[in-house]
């Protein structure tokens, strides 16, 4: 599963914000009096002020060079945790290290491959693990299984991974020590947004866990097909923008049909698609209002940035949104006809 968003409780809120933004070099993307959020690659991590001091286990994935940089920063501050052999630099399918943040959360950095393409990205990749203590890890696995794909088997009744290589819940029995410390696992509130098999909002009946499961492209609308149709007089440029620029797949086209030619782009397939038509007479196309938008919610920050940069390199224009909401977490770009496409780097509603 991809872990899009993690929301945890925090006690030393100001210290935590400085730790994550200054020492760990994560981008601050939101703050108010009682919370803040940072960007760890493709994962947004939110901390919300609490009167108690909870602690969690969170593992961050990153590449080799950035691992070394963060490791050296932590070593300089004497924050690294050692294992039973006294080692702070470990190895499990990649470089590995553990440390505390100001709240006492047991954090891990783990070298893992970059999954968006062959070329690795600088900085953080994602949250790869989130600890989820419970009284019965079999029950918690059964609770999640209908909604989230899982490749791991339970080999002991006190510990198991749940999910896939790109992201897992670490299911542990309450009281089991978090490696490499002697601190026993405790239950504290967790809110997650993750990818899964189907759209779902899960609240565990006894544990304070809320999990929103998002299917990246859903077909839950009870219709056999849905089309958004629009005229244009610039067919070649439209094909370039939506095909090469946005990266949508062409799912159909036609020529000389009662004076029209047309092309269809799937979002992502024929079930939901855009159609652009052009009449041989070149009928005038009215200029659209600035608040008429086509919005794509792209949870993966790397892919979102890649799409936006590709369109800008092709010469298409970024514009400020009429509604400032879309400029917070998104970018608005005009297509050849002046219609606006918003690329939002959030998980949506």
Automatic annotation (TrEMBL):
SUPFAM superfamilies: Glyoxalase/Bleomycin resistance protein/Dihydroxybiphenyl dioxygenase. Residues 2-112, 222-346 form the VOC domain. InterPro entries: Fosfomycin_Res_Enzymes (IPR051332), Glyas_Bleomycin-R_OHBP_Dase (IPR029068), Glyas_Fos-R_dOase_dom (IPR004360), VOC_core (IPR037523), YycE-like_C (IPR058997), YycE-like_N (IPR058998). This is VOC domain-containing protein.
């Amino acid at each position: 599963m991809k872990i899009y968003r993690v929301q945890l409780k925090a006690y030393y809120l100001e210290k935590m914000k400085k730790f994550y933004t200054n020492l760990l070099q994560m981008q601050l993307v939101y703050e108010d009096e009682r919370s803040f959020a940072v960007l760890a690659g493709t994962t947004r991590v939110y901390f919300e002020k609490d009167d108690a001091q909870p602690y969690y286990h969170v593992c961050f994935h990153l590449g080799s060079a950035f691992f070394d940089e963060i490791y050296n920063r932590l070593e300089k501050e004497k924050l690294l945790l050692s294992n039973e052999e006294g080692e702070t630099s470990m190895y499990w399918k990649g470089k590995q290290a553990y440390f505390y943040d100001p709240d006492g959360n047991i954090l891990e950095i783990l070298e893992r491959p970059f999954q968006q393409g062959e070329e690795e990205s600088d900085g953080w990749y994602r949250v790869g693990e989130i600890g989820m203590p419970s009284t019965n890890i079999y029950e918690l696995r059964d609770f999640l299984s209908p909604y989230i794909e899982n490749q791991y088997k339970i080999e002991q009744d006190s510990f198991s991974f749940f999910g896939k290589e790109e992201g897992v819940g670490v299911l542990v029995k309450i009281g089991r020590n978090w490696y490499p410390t002697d601190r026993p696992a405790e239950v504290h509130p967790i809110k997650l947004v993750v990818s899964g098999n189907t759209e779902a909002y899960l609240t565990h009946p006894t544990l304070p866990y809320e999990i929103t499961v998002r299917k990246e492209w859903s077909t839950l609308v009870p219709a056999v097909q849905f089309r958004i149709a629009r005229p244009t007089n610039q067919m070649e440029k439209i094909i370039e923008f939506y095909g090469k620029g946005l990266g949508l797949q062409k799912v159909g086209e036609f020529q000389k049909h009662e004076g029209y030619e047309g092309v269809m782009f799937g979002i992502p397939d024929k079930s939901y698609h855009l159609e652009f038509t052009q009449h041989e007479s070149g009928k005038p196309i009215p200029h659209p209002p600035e608040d008429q938008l086509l919005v794509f919610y792209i949870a993966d920050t790397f892919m979102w940035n890649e799409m936006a940069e590709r369109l800008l390199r092709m010469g298409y224009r970024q514009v400020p949104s009429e509604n400032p909401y879309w400029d917070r977490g998104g970018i608005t770009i005009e297509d050849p006809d002046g219609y606006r496409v918003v690329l939002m780097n959030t998980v949506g509603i």
